[in-house]
Each structure stands twice: as C-alpha cells, then as structure tokens.
Amino acid sequence: MSRIKILTDSSAQLTPEEIEKYDITVVPLSVTVGGNTYLDGIEISRQEFVKKMSESAELPKTSQPSIGRLVDTINDLTSDGSEVIGIFLAKVLSGTIDAARQAVKLTGKSDQVHIVDSELTDRAEGLQVLEAARDAEKGKSISEIIDHLEKIKKTQRLRLMIVNLENVIKGGRLGPISGKIANMLNIRIELQMPNGELKVAKKGRGKKFMMAFDQRVLDDIEANKEKIKEVGISYVSIDGVPQKLLDFAQKIKDINSKIDVLVRETSPIIATHAGMDAYAILYYTE
Q1: What is d(CA 170, CA 180) in angstroms, rounded to the nearest whole number?
Q2: CA dist., res. 12 & res. 269, Å (int)
Q3: Under a CB-based contact definition with an 8 Å cutoff, are residues 86 and 7 in contact?
Q4: Is the distance from CB of 276 to CB of 268 less than 8 angstroms?
Q5: DSSP sequence for 16-65
Q6: Angle at the Cα of 252 (from 224 to 191), degrees rounded to 5?
Q7: CA 191: distance to chain centroid?
Q8: pLDDT values of the chain reduced to their tens digit, one per residue, 286 residues
Q9: CA torsion angle 102 105 107 110 (round to 10)
Q10: Cα(first)–Cα(last) distance of the chain, in Å?
Q11: Which helix (H) or strand (E) covers residue 75, if one does?
Q12: What is the C-alpha to C-alpha distance for residues 53 and 237, in angstroms, rounded to an integer?
C-alpha cells in the first residue's frame, strides 16, 4: 500500500519498540574493531562493541552503509509506490547522507525519496525520525513533514561531555603531546553541534567541570520545561547504565514529570569518537 515511509541509519537512538511501532527502516553502518568488521545493531550489540573497544589497542573504524545496500533498501521501500523520507546523521560526522543521495540518483527515484540531513545524531536524530513517523501516521504531506523537521532542528540541543580523551587522541584530533598533557590535567571537553557543526563549547578539569555542565543543562530544561516533551540521555560505559545518569534522569522528571526520558547506550559510531564514559543529553523545545 502506498504511503510515506521513514528511513534512517543506525546511529539514530531508537528503541526496538519504536522501530516496530512506526515501521521505521534502519540501514546499519559498519564498525571495525579488533580486526573484525560488523554491521551495527545486526552483527554486534552496543554493549559487545564497547567491550571490544575497551580491549582494542587501535581506535575502531566506522563506515557508512554501502551504496548497494542503500539502493536495495530504496527500491524495496518504493516498490509499492510509496514515498520515503530518509533522515540521516550529520554530514560533518559521516558520508552516509551523501551515499544516500547517490543511491537515490542511481535508483532514479528522486521524485519519491526525500533526503534530510538531521544535522545531529543519536537521540537528537532519533527524535526527528519519530516526529516524521508520527506526522506520516497523521496523514501529513511530505512538505509538511519536512517543514516540521526544519523547525525541530532550529531548537535542538546536543550537549556531549567527553570524559576520557583516549579515543580523541587516537583519532588524531589532539597531537600526542597536547593529548598527554590533557590527560595529566584531567581535562574534560563539552561538545555541541550548532547548525550541524561539531564544536568545542567549553574545556575544564575534573568533576567540578562536569557538575557545572550538568547544572547548565538542568537549568536550560527548567527554563523550557513546558516546551520539552522528550529528553535523551546517551552514554558509553562498559559497566551498564551509570547511576549518575539515572539520577540525572530523575532530576529531569522532578522538573517536569511529563517529560519522557530515555537513558540508553549510544551506537558504536558515536562511542568510537566520544570515547569511554562519555555521555550526552539531547532534546528540543517546541
């Protein structure tokens, strides 16, 4: 039956229940760790990946979905005449969206498939995907859904705390000397993604810096508590959900009990770049 279908990538923070409820199609990125390559979410779980990452001397590598997989997915989704909205992680983080656009050209389905750069990733991307799926269920048009996504993007927040700089150093984002100094000084980094650009917002030392970061986020949620429906808290941990983040989620519920809070391990793609013990808070205001 012809309808509007939603397509995204595996870096989007979505629960299995959400994917099933809204019939969302997720194309997996690939991750290489410990000398082996896996399809994200299919051949390796998030917890398995973090364990392997912690044991690996080399930084894992991530790869966008193959053009062939994207072409096959697009052909399958449009075979009944349906239109597709594909929402993908920010171009600055991956070539996935360019691969998707190339796949659309190869299929000749540009009139049926509409590609959107979320300008973000993780639950921020996931919230866009969910709103698009809900809009489609309500019978909204392609243009109405895309307009809604653009409005969401304007007020979205992604606040990422880098706790362990090892992966940042391995990835060459810091020189070896500056990286060693940063670790010696117990440096933490706050990253944000305004307008799809990854930027260092603040740098600081130790737990006090992290506590100040947490409070700034809570203050913003407090100031916008009637405009926020959902908050995502994503993390990288080898020991399961950190109690600190469960406590943080409760503080959000104390601000406004109507806000839905999802605390969940992030994807291998984000874990690779953020490193061990990183965490992010993601939401938007209506």
Answers
A1: 11
A2: 10
A3: yes
A4: no
A5: HHHHHHTT-EEEPPEEEETTEEEEBTTTB-HHHHHHHHHH-SS--EEEPP
A6: 75
A7: 13
A8: 569 999 999 999 999 999 999 999 999 999 999 899 999 999 999 999 999 999 988 899 999 999 999 999 999 999 999 999 999 999 988 999 999 999 999 999 999 999 999 999 999 999 999 999 999 999 999 999 999 999 999 999 999 999 988 887 776 655 565 656 566 678 899 999 998 888 889 989 989 999 999 999 999 999 999 999 999 999 999 999 999 999 999 999 999 999 999 999 999 988 998 999 999 999 999 9
A9: 120
A10: 32
A11: helix 67-78
A12: 11
Phi-psi sector, 254: left (phi>0), alpha (psi -120 to 50), beta: alpha
Q: What is the pLDDT of residue 104?
A: 98
Q: Strand, coil or helix: what is 261? A: strand
Q: Which residues contact 97 (CB under 8 A, 6 or more apart)?
A: 88, 89, 90, 91, 115, 117
The tally of CA atoms less than 13 A away on the side-chain side of residue 238 is 8
CB atoms within 10 A of CB 207: 10
Burial class for 44, CB neighbours closer than 10 Å (0-12, 13-18, 19+): buried
Nearest alpha carbon to residue 26 among 37, 35, 14: 14
